[in-house]
Write a structure and sequence with these properties.
- By secondary structure, the chain is of the alpha+beta class.
- The protein has a domain of about 40 residues: YefM-like fold (3-Layer(aba) Sandwich).
- Helix content is about 30%, strand content about 20%.
- About 0% of the residues are buried.
- The model has no long low-confidence stretch (mean pLDDT about 80).
Length: about 80
Amino acid sequence: MGATKLTSKEFDPDAGQARKPASEEPVFICKHGKPAYVLMSIAEFQRITSGGRTIADLLYMPEAAELDIEFPAAQDLARPAEFS
């Protein structure tokens, strides 16, 4: 899947020009050279937002139980801030 990029100056006077590519792929609208908005079809939006998955579902890794990893305690990572 590709992506179309338009500057806000290109998008503002004729938003209709972005509808056709948005039906096929995301259209990024950029401000000051950086993506600021994404235009996509409602079908694509519903696809990526449906499913009822939570952040916990997305992070769940059943295979992680088999990994031998030790994480340091949070207090071992803390140190005073330096303001110089």
